[in-house]
Every structure is written in structure tokens, then in C-alpha cells.
Specification:
The complex is a heterodimer of chains A (346) and B (448).
Chain A (H helix, E strand, L loop, with lengths): L1 E6 L4 H14 L7 E7 L10 E4 L5 H11 L3 E4 L9 H22 L3 E5 L12 E4 L12 H15 L7 E7 L2 E2 L6 H10 L5 E3 L5 E2 L2 E2 H14 L11 E5 L5 E2 L2 H9 L8 E3 L1 H18 L7 H8 L2 E3 L2 H7 L7 H15 L6
Parallel strand pairs in A: 1-2, 1-4, 2-3, 4-5, 5-7, 6-15, 7-12, 8-11, 9-14
Antiparallel strand pairs in A: 10-13
Helix pairs in contact in A: 1-6, 2-3, 3-4, 8-9
Chain B lengths: L1 H6 L4 H15 L10 H4 L4 H13 L2 H6 L4 H22 L5 H9 L1 H4 L17 H5 L2 H9 L2 H23 L1 H6 L4 H25 L5 H5 L1 H18 L1 H6 L7 H4 L15 H16 L2 H10 L3 H21 L14 H10 L3 H18 L7 H25 L15 H23 L3 H10 L2
Helix pairs in contact in B: 2-21, 4-6, 4-10, 6-11, 6-13, 7-11, 11-13, 13-15, 15-18, 15-19, 15-20, 18-23, 19-23, 20-22, 22-23
The chains are: A alpha/beta (346), B mainly alpha (448).
Protein name (chain A): 846_t:CDS:1
Keywords (chain A): Oxidoreductase
InterPro entries (chain A): 3Beta_OHSteriod_DH/Estase (IPR002225), Lipid_A_modif_metabolic_enz (IPR050177), NAD(P)-bd_dom_sf (IPR036291)
Chain lengths: 346, 448
């Protein structure tokens, strides 16, 4: 029996990893796992799982969970959501990860798979065009979230082959899927607000959107492939994970809207500069009126930038190929949104 | 020329290209080797006759073939005439099948038979004279270097047998192409094999590495992309002559008959079906780009790249273009000339492919059932463009690539410049002659 502990196992991605592990347990041809979860609070209640609630910033919490779970394999996906203050990111992403590593040594853990992000390569300005793992980290990161993710990744990879531990990092790009609160949900909001006619930029910028189950699958592959065999070069490495099908940015929301039979009758196209100027005004207006900011300069830049990757390394070394293609992934995500909120479906 | 200029009126860069083309054409190297008098003085009569046939039987191909390096040029010219002869028999519906079949099956032997000719083509067959005088082709083929001969005979054998199979395939002749697999197979026989043969000739000449010939998948894609683009564009023409190349597996999703697509009641389905056909053709583009990236010889590069850039331009033009169901759609002469001028190195070719891919992206519409698939196919092409561009920029750092894009100003910008210039000169002239705007306006409105 393999004992696995998923840190952040009740989060969006973490839960998908747990579900894939459960899927293996119900398949007689696959290895069986004793699955434990460490998270801030318990949101799912499966009988076959063991829960440990605690705070990653408290060494004792995580150390106890690893000891009790007897896990020799760790998947560390815990991270605070976007949009919080700097201290939380440093505490959880860097401090928490250091705690995990210390506890790994303490308990003789053999394998650690760490969830990083493709955003660790983003400096907030430059396009990421067909970038692969040979690219180095930018001098300046575009936000605290990604700066701390990069820092944690460095620490994790440096711990490879120290004290009998093997480590690697998965860098997914723009994850979406059922239960995702950010990407697809945000695009639905735009539809509900009736803002689908607007297009900022020329829509020539490609973007890698990644279906969550594929990312979870990549974690399991990494876990399987981590080995002390020197011919298998997974330990100490980072792997970019995408669906392998970059598309023009605006085609993603348009396809999502089409799943709800929403088709903008025409498009009002504006340049990036015009978009930035308008967003600047909108930010001020929202600030003055004390409203939630929807149209921000950050989003304008996001929608106009190219962010796609070359995932050959993951394909060759991990043997990764996305089990769910982009179209199927989006359809599943939209079906889930309809189930959640039936007023969307027409 | 005048028509071409008018068509390009709103694309000043094309007008410049057309004018440049006109001047370079009439001055230095002519499009036909036969007019380069000094060279052919010592040629055999049969060789001269072969080149005359090349110019007679092919419009587009003849020009590019004759730009090739001398030795390879003869091989490619004969390769072309061997396939053209075969095609002239296969295509002629006045020849009864029992007469046609043995010729197709034996084609590879026939082209090694001294003095063989064929006089039974219908009087309307435009290329019948080629077969009447076929001994000149056979004679020249005989004299060709063995390495080339082997390639030509091999492809001739495979293609003629493929054609014989199709000629006896009742379902194919009655209902047209059925599955996508059949479609690929059909295109393989009529175009993929040509790609294979040409690649083998390039490698045999020593001008290209053996890998060009060995990587058969890429060579086949080169042929398939061209063929599929033509099949899409020629929907109406083919249908009028009762040829059905669009695979049923695709069109049956949109109509119960292939010919229903041109029915105005089925406009939406017709456009969607067209998108599906374009999507199918787009799948071959990455292979084509990789193939062209492997070509080293400048003349071979031009030879390969010109048809490819025309194909992607045509595909971008026909995509979502309902006119293909109404009439013959073609890219403007000016656009063609501009493409030919530009398609001289891989970086420029990548630029061209990227440009037309973006045209397709912009036309793509979320109402289309293949919207996301087309989006992904375009994304894939752009990613390949990026990968190849990076590797070629890296490898060509030493021998600085001359990018022929001085004229790469946007059409729109140049157009505005023209208009401004025109206004400025008129204004200046009016000022000189003491005419006021009011007078002009008054004259136009009240005294007309």
C-alpha cells in the first residue's frame, strides 16, 4: 500500500488530484493508495480519506500530519488564492514549503511533487512565446504570488537527492475546469454583464489554457516517475504543463459563451493602449464609487499578452500527453457551471 | 495587367509588386529557358521539344521548374511530362475503360518503350499532342541519369496503378470520395506521390540532403496541402464536371447531397462545411513549414515555397467565403506577384503563413461548429512558425539572412499616404491657379 499525503487536497487542483488517486483505487489494474489530506479546513467528506486540518505555517501541524499518515509520497499543491497581501504569500508559499521540506526529512519522505506555476516565468510585461523550461526566472516578477511560487520552487528543487528525498515541480498554465472559481467563472461574469462585444487587442496573441484534470494527471505521472534511477531525469526538474493547444486569447471566452448559446452580434475592437487608458479611468471610477473592479489594467494586459509554452520536456521525460482535449475540457466545465447555477443554461 | 492593377487598387504594395514584376520580367531572365537562346543552341531537338511541351501543358508549374538548377531541371521537367502524359489518358472520358486500363497498368513499361505514342485521345483533349509526340519524352527519359530515372519510374508505377484502381472503382466514380481516409488516399495518389518524387529528385541531385527524400510524411503533406486547397476552391468547377472530391464523411454532416451546398437555402450549412474542409487542409501546414525549413538550395526553395504560399493565401481567401459556391474564386494577380517576390527564404515564408493564419483567426466565428478546432489548428501553425523561426534565426546568425521585406509597409498605411499626397498636390495646384474650394463645390453642386 502506498501512503500519499496531498497538501491542499481540498483546493481546486488538490481535489482533482485526490479524485484521480481515488480513480486508481477503484481500478484493479492500478496501484492502491492510502490517501491522506492536509488542508486548512475540510470541505469534502469521503470515508476512504484521512483528513488532517492544520496550518502550513505551523511546523508542528504539517509534521504531525506527515508522521500520522505514514506518507512516503507528498503532493504539495497548497497556495493562497490570488489578490491577497504580500505577507500571506511569503508565509504560506515560502515559509510553509520550508516547513514541508523540514518535515519530509524528519519523517523520511521519499518523493515530493510540488505545484508551481507557469507564471513564475512572467515578468508582467514581456510576452511568453513558446517558452520552455530553459528560460530563467525574470529579474522582477509580476506579483507576489508568482515571486513566492518561484522562490518555493527553487527551494524544493534544491532539496532533490538530499536526505533520501526526490523532488520535482509542475508548472501549469492558466488552469480551468469544474469547480474553478476564477477563469471560466470570470468569463461567464463578462457574459452576464453583457460585455461580450468588446475585444481588446488584435486577438493574435496565443494563450495556453489547461484543463485541471490534465494538470492533476501530470502530478501523478511525476509521482510515478520520480525515481533514484539516474536515467530517469525527473528529480530536481520543473515541468511546464499545458493542454498543448494554444489558441488566440479571445477564442476561449467566445467558445465558452457559445456553450451558453451566446453569440455577440458584432465586435467592438480597441487597441491595447486604448484599453489601458479606459481601464485606468474605470479603476478610478470604481474606486470613487466604491464598486468591485471588473475592468482593470491588469486584465487588459492579460488579455493582450501572449502566454504559451513548449511542453516537449514534459512529453518526453514524463511521457505526458493531455488525456482531456481543450474542447472536451471546456464543455465539461460549462456543464458543471450549468448544474451549479441552472439559470445560466438555456 | 490593367485588370490586375485595378483589382489591387486598394493594395498599393501589390501595385508596386506588379510594376516591379513587369519590369524584371521583360528585362533579364525570361520565364522560359527556350527564349534564353544562347544556352539551347547545342540542345537536342527532343529536349527542346520537351521544354516546349512543358510550357504548353502547364501554366504555373512551367515557370518555377525552369528556374531550377540545370541538371535537376531536366529531371523535374521529364517527371512532370511523365505524369502529365498519364493524366491525359486517365482524364479523357472519350477513351473506353478497356482501352485505358492496360495503358495505366503498364505505364511504367510504356515510358521505357522507344517510339511509343498514343493518338486516340478525343479531339477536345488539350494536351493530346503531347501523347502524339510522346517518343521525344521517352527518348529524353532514356538519357537521364539513373538516380533520377529510378525515382521517376517508381512514382510513375505507383501513381498509374493508383489511377487504374480509381478508374475501376465504381463507387468512387459514381458517388465521389467517401471517408476522410479515402480523401487522404486519393490526394496521396494525385499529389502526395508528386511530393515524394520531387523530394527524391532533390536528394538524388545532391543539392539537398538524403533526409529530404527520406522523410516521406513531410513530402506527402506538401502535396496534400496544395491538392486539398485546390479541391476546396474548385468545388463548383468540379461539381459542374461531375467530379466529387469533397469527402462524404465531411459534407454529410451539413447536407444530404454534395450539390445541395450551393443551394442558397443551405447557406449556413455550406459555410460550415467549407470551414470543416479548410480545417482538414490546415492540419498539413506544420509539416509543410518543417519541410521548407529543411531545404538548403535557393532555387529548390523557391520552387517549393511559391505554390505553398499561394495555397495558404488561397485557403485564407476561401475560408468563410460563400462565393466559392457561386463562382471561381482566385487570389488577385497583384497578391500572387507579391507572394512570389517575398517567398525566397524560410523566414519570409513563415511571415506569410503567420499573416494568413491571422486572417483565418480573424474570420473564425464562434457560431461555427468547428470554431475551437480551427482556433487550435491556427494556434498550432503559429507555434510551429515560432519554433522554426527561432531555430533558423539561431542557425543563420553567421550568414545574415536577407529578409526581402523593405516593402513590408502595411497596405493601409501606404494607401493613406497616397491619399494625403493626392490631396496635398491638388491643394497646392489649386492654390497656384487661384481656385478656391468653394468654387469647386459650387461648380459641382449647382452647375453639373
Amino acid at each position: 500500500m502506498n501512503h500519499v499525503l496531498v497538501i491542499g487536497g481540498d483546493g481546486f487542483l488538490g481535489r482533482w488530484i485526490v479524485e484521480l488517486l481515488l480513480r486508481r483505487n477503484s481500478d484493479p489494474n492500478q496501484p492502491n493508495y492510502a490517501i491522506s489530506i492536509f488542508d486548512l479546513q475540510q470541505r469534502y467528506f469521503d470515508e476512504s480519506l484521512t483528513y488532517y486540518t492544520g496550518n502550513l505555517t505551523q511546523y508542528e501541524d504539517i509534521n504531525l500530519a506527515i508522521a500520522k499518515s505514514r506518507a512516503k509520497t507528498l503532493i504539495h499543491t497548497a497556495s493562497p488564492p490570488h489578490g491577497l497581501n504580500s505577507k500571506i504569500y511569503w508565509d504560506v508559499n515560502v515559509g510553509g514549503t520550508k516547513n514541508v521540506l523540514k518535515a519530509c526529512v524528519e519523517n523520511g519522505v521519499e518523493k515530493l511533487v510540488f505545484t508551481s506555476s507557469a507564471g513564475v516565468l512572467y515578468d508582467g510585461i514581456s510576452d511568453l512565446v513558446n517558452v520552455d523550461e530553459t528560460a530563467s526566472f525574470p529579474k522582477v516578477f509580476h506579483d507576489d504570488y508568482h515571486e513566492t511560487k518561484a522562490e518555493a520552487e527553487k527551494i524544493v528543487l534544491a532539496a532533490n537527492r538530499q536526505n533520501g528525498l526526490l523532488t520535482c515541480a509542475i508548472r501549469p498554465s492558466a488552469i480551468f475546469g469544474p469547480r474553478d472559481q476564477q477563469l471560466a467563472a470570470g468569463m461567464i461574469k463578462v457574459m452576464e454583464r453583457g460585455q461580450t462585444k468588446f475585444q481588446i487587442g488584435d486577438n493574435f496573441n496565443l494563450f495556453d489554457f489547461t484543463y485541471v484534470e490534465n494538470v492533476a494527471y501530470a502530478h501523478l505521472l511525476a509521482m510515478d516517475k520520480l525515481s533514484s534511477d539516474p536515467d530517469i531525469k525527473v528529480g530536481g526538474e520543473a515541468f511546464l504543463i499545458t493542454n498543448g493547444t494554444p489558441i488566440p486569447f479571445w477564442d476561449m471566452p467566445r467558445f465558452i459563451w457559445s456553450q451558453f448559446n451566446h453569440y455577440p452580434p458584432y465586435y467592438i475592437k480597441m487597441s491595447r493602449t486604448a484599453g489601458l487608458a479606459l481601464a485606468y479611468c474605470a479603476e478610478w471610477a470604481c474606486y470613487l464609487l466604491n464598486r468591485e473592479q471588473g475592468f482593470t489594467r491588469y486584465r487588459v494586459k492579460y488579455a493582450c499578452s501572449s502566454r504559451y509554452f513548449n511542453i516537449n520536456k514534459s512529453k518526453t521525460i514524463l511521457g505526458y500527453s493531455p488525456p482531456v482535449d481543450l474542447e472536451e475540457g471546456i464543455k465539461r466545465t460549462c456543464e458543471h457551471l450549468v448544474q451549479q447555477n441552472p439559470k445560466n443554461g438555456k | 495587367m490593367a485588370k490586375a492593377l485595378i483589382d489591387s487598387a486598394f493594395h498599393p504594395t501589390e501595385i508596386i509588386a506588379l510594376i516591379q514584376y513587369k519590369f524584371t520580367q521583360s528585362s533579364s531572365s525570361s520565364s522560359s529557358v527556350l527564349t534564353r537562346k544562347e544556352k539551347i543552341a547545342c540542345w537536342r531537338k527532343s529536349k527542346i521539344r520537351c521544354y516546349e511541351f512543358l510550357n504548353l501543358t502547364s501554366r504555373s508549374f512551367a515557370v518555377v521548374i525552369q528556374e531550377l538548377n540545370e541538371e535537376l531541371r531536366d529531371a523535374v521537367c521529364l517527371f512532370y511530362l511523365v505524369l502529365r502524359g498519364l493524366d491525359t489518358i486517365e482524364d479523357d472520358m472519350t477513351i473506353p475503360i478497356e482501352k485505358k486500363l492496360p495503358i495505366l497498368r503498364d505505364w511504367e513499361k510504356i515510358i521505357a518503350t522507344d517510339g511509343w505514342n498514343f493518338t486516340e485521345n478525343g479531339p477536345d483533349e488539350k494536351d493530346r499532342q503531347l501523347l502524339v509526340e510522346y517518343p521525344v519524352v521517352i527518348e529524353e527519359l532514356e538519357k537521364l541519369d539513373t538516380v533520377y530515372k529510378e525515382v521517376i519510374f517508381d512514382i510513375a508505377k505507383r501513381m498509374s496503378n493508383g489511377m487504374a484502381d480509381y478508374a475501376t472503382n465504381a463507387a468512387h466514380n459514381e458517388y465521389g470520395v467517401n471517408t476522410i481516409k479515402d480523401y487522404d488516399e486519393y490526394c496521396f495518389y494525385v499529389a502526395g506521390l508528386v511530393g515524394l518524387g520531387l523530394s527524391n529528385l532533390f536528394s538524388a541531385s545532391g543539392l539537398e540532403s538524403p533526409e529530404v527524400g527520406k522523410n516521406t510524411k513531410l513530402s506527402i503533406s506538401m502535396g496534400l496541402f496544395l491538392q486539398k486547397t485546390n479541391i476546396i476552391r474548385d468545388y463548383l468547377e468540379d461539381l459542374n464536371e461531375n467530379r466529387r472530391f469533397w469527402p462524404k464523411e465531411i459534407w454529410s454532416k451539413y447536407a444530404s447531397n454534395l450539390s445541395d451546398l450551393k443551394d442558397p437555402d443551405h447557406k449556413k450549412q455550406a459555410i460550415d462545411c467549407l470551414s470543416n474542409m479548410c480545417l482538414d487542409a490546415l492540419q498539413h501546414v506544420p509539416d509543410c513549414l518543417v519541410y521548407m525549413g529543411n531545404i538548403r538550395d535557393q532555387k529548390i526553395f523557391n520552387f517549393c515555397a511559391i505554390p505553398q504560399v499561394m495555397a495558404i493565401a488561397t485557403l485564407a481567401l476561401v475560408f468563410k467565403n460563400y462565393n466559392i459556391y457561386l463562382r471561381n474564386v482566385k487570389i488577385r494577380k497583384g497578391e500572387t506577384v507579391k507572394l512570389i517576390q517575398k517567398a525566397t527564404n524560410i523566414l519570409n515564408v513563415i511571415d506569410i503563413f503567420r499573416h494568413y493564419t491571422q486572417v483565418i483567426i480573424t474570420k473564425n466565428d464562434s457560431r461555427d461548429p468547428n470554431f475551437l478546432k480551427i482556433s487550435i489548428a491556427c494556434g498550432q501553425i503559429k507555434q510551429w512558425c515560432q519554433t522554426l523561426e527561432a531555430s533558423h534565426k539561431l542557425s543563420s546568425k553567421s550568414k545574415a539572412f536577407n529578409k526581402t521585406s523593405e516593402l513590408n509597409l502595411f497596405d493601409a498605411q501606404l494607401f493613406i499616404l497616397f491619399v494625403l499626397l493626392l490631396l496635398a498636390t491638388t491643394g497646392w495646384a489649386m492654390h497656384l491657379w487661384g481656385i478656391h474650394w468653394e468654387q469647386v463645390v459650387n461648380h459641382l453642386i449647382f452647375f453639373n
